[in-house]
Amino acid sequence: MIFYDLDPRELEILEIMVQLITTSSYKLSKLSGMPSASVWRILIKLSNRGLVIKEERSFKITPKGLAICYYSSKKGYIKEFAVRELKNQWKYEGSEEELKGFLNSLFSLLLKRGISPFCMCFTDPLPLASIFLNSTEELNEDSRKAVARILLSSLPSITLSNGCKAVVSFDCNGSIYGLAVNCKLSGLRIFHKCPLLEEEVKRIATSRRNIQ
Fold first, then answer.
1. What secondary structure, in 3-state letters, does the chain show?
2. CA Rg, the chain, in Å?
3. What is the pLDDT of residues 65-77, one digit of tens each?
4. Every domain range in the chain assigned CATH 1.10.10
5. Segment 144-147 long-range contacts (CB within 8 Å, at least 24 positions apart)
6. What global pTM score does this model have?
7. CATH code of the domain occupying 2-146
8. Residue 1: what pLDDT?
9. What pLDDT, on a 0 to 100 scale, did the predictor assign at position 2?
10. What pLDDT digit, counting tens, does each position of 123-166 carry?
11. Span 8-22, pLDDT tens digits
12. pLDDT (tens digit, 9 = 90+) per residue, 13-51?
């Protein structure tokens, strides 16, 4: 698909880098069987697109490179490597299945809107998760959990007396809800309303007013 704008040799180099994470141009030449000069040109091109970064004596694949390779590769084991390393670089605490669901939903939404993944920044998952706040119908159960988990790990949250954790927000009527919650009963949820959450937020607000 031209949508990804990767030629076969570029994808091959990226697929090798997904497995090695950090490696040299020389090693990539040996593993791919491509001439050293060709590999160097490909790496510079991938670097200019933000898919790899040049270090002192090597190149390292970036989160964007991992995501693009996940979307572009037809090899299942390469996709597994990409998700596993993206989970590591994002410090994502959920399962790989959740992350796959999130990436698949993100790709589907970008494709629907005619946006190339090359235009996106994958360094921080929060802006990517925020895209879905007005498009929740695009999310399946795994991707909903992933969005909730990303929001909870990135935004200020409160812990309720029963141990539930929530990112608090307010609707247009001033009603309190959890933008993202990790509920003891319902699990990971987005746009979640809970009487206990409303009670505790009001109690905290009252306590602060009394202190002032």
1. CHHHCCCHHHHHHHHHHHHHCEECHHHHHHHHCCCHHHHHHHHHHHHHCCCEEECCCCEEECHHHHHHHHHHCCCHHHHHHHHHHHHHHHCCCCCHHHHHHHHHHHHHHHHHHCCCHHHCCCCCHHHHHHHHHHCHHHCCHHHHHHHHHHHHHHCCCEECCCCCEEEEEECCCCCEEEEEEEECCCEEEEEECCHHHHHHHHHHHHHHHHHC
2. 21
3. 999 999 999 999 9
4. 2-146
5. 144/188, 144/189, 144/190, 145/94, 145/98, 145/101, 145/187, 145/188, 146/92, 146/94, 146/98, 146/99, 146/101, 146/102, 147/102, 147/180, 147/190
6. 0.89
7. 1.10.10
8. 39
9. 37
10. 999 999 999 998 898 899 999 999 999 999 999 998 888 888 99
11. 999 999 999 999 999
12. 999 999 999 999 999 999 999 999 999 999 999 999 999
Do 158 and 118 meet the contact criterion of CB atoms below 8 Å apart?
no
User: Which amino acid, one-letter code, is at 90?
Assistant: W
Amino acid at 42: I
With tokens 């992350």, the residue in question is 99
